[in-house]
Each structure stands twice: as structure tokens, then as C-alpha cells.
Amino acid sequence: MMQKIDTKTKKQVLQFNPTTTAKNLDILREENIGVFFSNLVKVEDRNLILLFLELSNESLLEAIDRLSMHRVNSAMMQTPSDLMTDFLQRLEILDEKYAKKLQKLMNEKEKNEYLELNQYDETQAGAYMEKEFLSAYTKDTIKDVKEKVKIFRKEEEGSYIIKLFVIDENEKFIATLHFSDLILFENETTLKEIIEKLKPHQPLSIFPTTDVVEVIRLFDEFDLSVLAVVDENGVLIGRILYDDIYELIQRINTDQVYKLAGVDDEAEEVSFFSAQRMRLVWLFVNLATIIMASVVIDNFKETIASYIALAALMPLVAALGGNAGMQAMTVTIRKIALGEVQFNQAFTVLRKEFLIVVINGLVIASTIALITFLWFDDKMLALVIAIAMVINLIVAGSVGVLIPLVLKKIGIDPAIASSVLLTTTTDIFGFFIFLFLAKMVLM
């Protein structure tokens, strides 16, 4: 088993897939620290930071403890600025002293890039910006561009050249050109002449302070591979690549899944005890909501005691209401995260959801009514559960839409609190409407 993993890791180091290599090294660290380190040192400097970003916290700390700080700094110099910043930010959390020592080894250019990118939080475009990009002036010729490509390839080995950014003499962003268009012109043709002939569309750009939701929307709507970042004067200062946005979308999806389950993904990564404490907090919150639902049931204990069939049917009403609400809530949170829906669009979203739950409610209610009648041979009981089901699904669907929108409006992350509020609402209301109708009709 050990040799098989070792061989596979060597192969991945040669081809280099940072995610797969990191997973294999994490396994090796737990089984044989010597083999872990022998494979780690074979990773090229230009790939080392990419690997570090994928390693578990324990493996990363072991790696920086065994590798020289000068080698880590050398690897940082060969890494795009946005990834270098991500790495240093992670180090500051895991080992602040090491991170500060490492920053002292950085040259002035790297240090300035890090300080610039580090000022933006994860909700801003600047946090995902690369400082490495290829640009040329309008006065430059095709020959000049070719030379700049050679220099860029040599100095920025870890960065991709996707498109050419054209700037004026004041460094202001003018246009974006495809290299496939440039090869159609002679070496002495200037970029200004090319722009005048091709008449490209007005280029898209964003500020480093632009909300990342807007960045995701632009990439999705215009099918972008790269997006320019400019300052308040229109000066080109960086770029954002699609792969960074793709990873961000994946993180958003993962974060939403964790939060909907009452789990903090950051706590899960830090340590066993932080994960245990965070989960315990949410379990107590859920316990409180269950007690509230139990209080509602207790108020109808005489009705339940007189009509035992109610006890068998109660979970159906609450569970299906919860599922309908969760469907509406998940879709709404997803749309909020991607910037596809705002609070002022609540009525439109609510109307669509209302139609869906009414149709689904009638179908489900009819099915449950038939099952109830065949099971208990009681027409009135079948009618009660059918009415309760339709009402509860309508309420659950509406609440599933409104809760995330209202939470977003008042500045609370919808993914954190929505599921608890939804569960509380659907359980309490579901039990109440079913038992109340049963008491009024059957008793």
C-alpha cells in the first residue's frame, strides 16, 4: 500500500496536479513522515505554493517546518501574486511568526504586491486579482508585442497569457485584443491602427472594491476568460482569471452546504475541538426549536389522546412542509449568492414559488388523503390532513423565499440562519394547523 501511494505521488509530481498530489501527500504524512518529506522535496519551486494551498493544515505546518525558509521564499517568487497572497494569509492564521519572518525575505516588489492585495477582503474583487498581466501601449507595434511576450514568459513562468491589454500613455485601459487577431497584421503595425481597424467592443473592467457577486455575474453573463481591474482613474492595475472565479463559485457552494447543515467550514478546518464546539452550538439551537414544536404538540395532547391516528400522521405534515421550504430556500440562497435576485424582486420570486407549491401541494395532498382514507377508513381525517398539507406547503414555500431575502436585506448571511428559522416555522406551523383543524373538525 505504501509503495503504491509513493509511486503515484511521484507520477503526480511530474505531471503536477496540486489537488491530487496534496491528497496523496496527506495520506503519506499520516503513514510515513519520511516518505512524505522525500516526495515533498521533489516538487519544483514553481509548483510548491500551489501544493501548499491544497495541503491540510497539519501537512502544511510539517512541510514548512522541514523545508528551508529560503526555498519557500524562492517558490513564492515564482507564484502569481494572488496565490502568493492566499498562501501568506493562510500562514498568518496557522503560524504568524513564520509568516512575518517570511515576509522579511520578500523583495520590495513582492512585498508591495502582497500589501496591496491583502487590504481587500474576500467579498471584494481585489482579493482575487493577479498583478501579473501582459499589456502594451497604443503606440507599440506587433514587433514590440512579440518582444514583450518573450519577456513576460521568461519573468512570469507561472502566469498565463490569455489576452493583450492595451493602455494609453497614461496607463489607462483602452482595449482588449485577442492574439489570433494580432497575427493578421504586419510587424510594423501599431496597436492604435489595429484598434481603429478592428473596432473592438468597449472593454469590460471592474474596480478592486467591486463586490465579488458582480464579478461572478460578469464572468457568467459575458462568458469571460479574463477581466481587467482598474483604479478610480481607469489605470490598469491587475486582472482576474476565470479559474479563480470558478474556484470561488465552488467555495461558495461548499460554504452554503456547510452552513445549511449548521456546520462552519472554517471551524472544520482549524481543529477537532473547534469543529466539535461549533457543531454543538447548532445542535443546541436545533434543540430549542424542537422544544418549541413540542410545546405546540403538548397543547393538543387531549386531541391526540382522543384520536390516536393523528400521532401517526403528524410527521408527514411537518416533514413535507420542511422539504418544500428547503427547496425554495436553497434556490433563493443560490440566486442571492450569484447576484441573480435582490430584495426588491421578492414579489416576483414569491409569485413563482406560490404557483409551484400550490400545484405540488394539491398533488401531494390528494395522494396523502387517499393513503389516509385507505389506512384509517376515515373520510374526515383524510380531508383534514389534505387541507393542512396544502396550507403548510404554501406557508413553507413562501417562508423559504422570504427568510433568505429578509436576512440578506438586514445584513445577515442567509446561509447561516435560514435553515434554523425555516425548520422552526414549518414544524411549529405544520403541527399547529394540522392539530387545530383536527380539533375543530374531528372533535
Keywords:
three-stranded mixed β-sheet; CBS-domain; 443 residues; MgtE N-terminal fold; single chain; 3 domains; 6 strands; Tetracycline Repressor, domain 2; mainly alpha; disordered N terminus
Query: What would you call the structural class?
Result: mainly alpha
Helix content: over 70%
User: Tally the helices: what do you get?
Assistant: 21
Evaluate the radius of gyration. 29 Å
Beta-strand segment tally: 6
Shape: elongated
List the strand order in the largest sheet: 1-2-3
Task: Outline the biggest β-sheet.
Answer: 3 strands, mixed
Mean pLDDT: 87
Terminal-residue CA separation: 68 Å
Structure overview:
- The structure is a single chain.
- With 443 residues, the protein is mainly alpha-helical.
- It has three domains: 2-119, MgtE N-terminal domain-like (MgtE N-terminal fold); 135-241, Roll (CBS-domain); 261-442, SLC41 divalent cation transporters, integral membrane domain (Tetracycline Repressor, domain 2).
- Helix content is 71%, strand content 6%.
- The protein is built from 21 helices and six strands.
- The protein has helices spanning 2-15, 18-31, 33-40, 45-54, 57-66, 69-77, 81-94, 96-105, 108-118, 142-155, 179-182, 191-198, 212-222, 242-260, 265-270, 272-298, 301-306, 309-337, 346-376, 379-409, 414-442, and strands at residues 135-137, 164-167, 173-177, 205-206, 226-230, 236-241.
- The strands form two sheets. The chain has a three-stranded mixed β-sheet. Strands 4-5-6 form a three-stranded mixed β-sheet.
- Helix 10 (142-155) links the parallel strand 1 (135-137) and strand 2 (164-167).
- Helix 1 (2-15) packs antiparallel against helix 2 and helix 2 (18-31) packs across helix 4 (45-54).
- The longest helix is centred in the C-terminal third of the chain and has 31 residues, at 346-376.
- The protein is elongated.
- The model is unreliable at 1-14 (pLDDT under 50).
